[in-house]
Amino acid sequence: MTAVPALSMTGISKAFPGVRALDDVDFECLPGEVHAICGENGAGKSTLMKILGGSYKPDAGAIHLAGKAVQFTHPRQAAEAGIAIIHQELSLLPHRTVEENIFMGHELARRGILDKVAMRERAAELLRRVGAQIDPQAPVSSLSIALQQVVEIAKALLLDARILVMDEPTAALDERDSRTLLKLVDGLRGEGVSIVYISHRMPEVTAIADRITILKDGRKIWTRPRDAAPISEIVRAMVGRDLKDFYPAVPVSPADEVLLAIEGGMNAGLRDVAFNVRAGEILGVAGLEDSGKGALAQALVGDVPFTSGTVALRGQPIALRTPRQATAAGIGYLPGDRKREGLALRQSVRDNALLTLRSMTGLFTRPQRGALAHDAMDERLRAMDVRAADFGQEVGTLSGGNQQKAIIVRWLAQASDILVFVEPTRGIDIAAKAAIYETMRAFTGSGRGIVVVSSDMPELIGIADRVLVMHQGRISGVVRRGASEEDIMHLALGLADAPSAEAGA
Amino acid sequence: MTTVPQSSPSRRQAARITVNSGLVIFVALYAVIAFLQPNYLEPGLFMNFLRRAAPLVILSCGQLYVILTGGFDLSMGAVATLVVLAASILINGDPETTWAVIGALYAMGIAVGLVNGLVVAFLKVPSIIATLGTMLLVNGLALAWSGGAARGDLPDNFRNLGRLVWRNVPVIGTLPLAALVLTGFVALAWFGLNATVYGKRALAVGDNPRAAELAGTPVAATRILAFVVSAVSAATAGILLGGFSGVSVNAGEGLELQAIAACVIGGAQLLGGRGSVWSAVFGALSLFALFTLLNLLGLPQALRDSIQGLILIAAVGASMWGNRRRT
């Protein structure tokens, strides 16, 4: 192919105070090509895309669109030049309809009056083009995250975007929705749209990308066609080392003592849930979106409690009506949305890690004594390898992996018996992932238990001793270590009775 | 991005500067006052300045508790008015009852604080609306109870709390009782935020109530306690105001907004998550120094409000601007 690249960025450099975010990076994308960018968090992917989108000005380097040099000083200019960026966090207005969102800022008007009929037709046409059956008049809040993403893409197509940047588009999607999205990406490629695809999910990258570029510490490591880039090579280039022991070894002694027992757990999202967590066990929970796997986690931590059923910890019945009760009972929670539910972003790393200890102690406890002392907590943070220049800095300035570790430290300090993890490694880099898996094993190694809810099936298969699979609020089956993704998918889709019908209780 | 050590000292420095912005402004304003009226540098006049500033500083400390947890307390001024009017009615010229009445005044204040806190924490009414409601309610009750006009006198032992000044004190010359009350209250407020775990809980609740709740923080109790502290500070300020200026139906008018403005000038962040006792103390002293300065310059009283409005906008604008530049 000797086509003129739709996008070419050459020699891009960008420094922030104290950080060299990008150093002489070249990147190009041909028309009708899906070009994936991989790299750990902090490798410079987002910075590169923010420069492309006109949010940042590069210190050096040039951007050419279809051979023409461009310079953006405002995101609007980039949008007008045909660049659309779909962020991980969607930018739709939830209470407006799909068509209003698609036309937001670009409403069609006739003689100064909104032309609703034309907008509706155009919206329907765009939605057809992306192969989605969405009512243009439905409010966005009524759509699943997957469909909202499709609306974002339709919005980009309205502006006739020639370059579509997708930043972790599948991070919030389950397996089935991810496949649908990938199909859509494939279709857009067929129409000649250039797609820059950023993802941490390796199987996805190698399935969809024509070429793959690896960034590490602000530098480009290499760009290769897909066939020359097996996953192992990508991972090695990203982290600079092999990750042979990505998932920690399984302990030899089988778990037996029952730690947590749930019987007949019911609420609006759960139907007759019964299972055990054994001492030393990592129990995975799989399922599609809205299968009840999120509701199960929320019930276990008292956020959206069970309305009936019994919960017993080490044989003692416990009440889990509020998160505070769950915390007092020894159940800790790592929420799926760490920014909204996990962290007080403007408080320091240390304060976030100390939050639970401070919350559960008496009101008049001196904050500087014993386990509450800064030194004691700093020790724990260092042991967890939370990387911050200073634990007094705002936790919001850390990378996702380090933020996640800080929340885990919070619960380790509280000496919880059971940890409920929801999407523990979503959007974090591979090295931090490995560290978190290691911590999970060490935690259960001391006779405690973990319930891990995840949409990432390889993760569940790799880390969990057993996996509960949920479908429509029920546990549709339990699979043991060594099961395949197909086994889990089968149960998640509600297609079969539990094949390895091991009693969950 | 990759963590690079050298980026953090500048950030830490920036934080230190924001914490002390109130102090900087106060020193600057007081310097101007002293330039115009050199005798403001004498200990006696400075003590008098502190005495008159005491109610605002105390109110600001209380307001700060609520601001840290992410709310506003608009009912403080009304509580202060209620305290002044109730004191004159209940004491009714009998100095013997003063101390019992002061106890009753605090009980009223705490009751208002509890109502505010319970409404905000359990009915989930935004605090700005809930306390606007109690403000109208308390103001109306106080006026109805007093018959719409101030009546009665406060006995000397009550008024002394705001008025009494000891003379011939070594080193500082004069010492107003109100300055002691001020110091005591600030020390208590500091103790609550820094020497107990409450302060960090309040900051976490103000920053992200959802995350705090999921981490086990008693969010409702934290909020309610903040409103109670705020109401106690309003009662204290009301007692001092009664001492200064006697009984008046608008003793506390507008104080709630001054207290909010003071916290913001001192660097506390509206909607929670950032601020310290020093934001409240130095913010309040700055605001009071500004009022003093405007008096010295001979500006009409009415312009105070306009200037206060301007300052509030400028202070919030500056902190937003600073935030945006940092990200």
From TrEMBL, chain A:
GO terms for molecular function: ATP binding; ATP hydrolysis activity. Belongs to the ABC transporter superfamily. This is ATP-binding cassette domain-containing protein. GO terms for cellular component: plasma membrane. It is found in: Cell membrane. Its main location: membrane. The keyword ATP-binding applies. It comes from the Bacteria. The keyword Nuclease does not apply. The lineage of its organism: Bacteria, Pseudomonadati, Pseudomonadota, Alphaproteobacteria, Hyphomicrobiales. Pfam families: ABC_tran (PF00005). Keywords: ATP-binding, Cell membrane, Membrane, Nucleotide-binding, Repeat, Sugar transport, Translocase, Transport. Residues 7-242, 253-497 form the ABC transporter domain. It is a peripheral membrane protein.
From TrEMBL, chain B:
The complex is composed of two ATP-binding proteins (LsrA), two transmembrane proteins (LsrC and LsrD) and a solute-binding protein (LsrB). Keywords: Cell inner membrane, Cell membrane, Membrane, Transmembrane, Transmembrane helix, Transport. It comes from Shinella kummerowiae. Pfam families: BPD_transp_2 (PF02653). It comes from the Bacteria. One of its GO terms (molecular function) is transmembrane transporter activity. This is Autoinducer 2 import system permease protein LsrC. InterPro entries: ABC_transp_permease (IPR001851). One of its GO terms (cellular component) is plasma membrane. It is found in: Cell membrane.
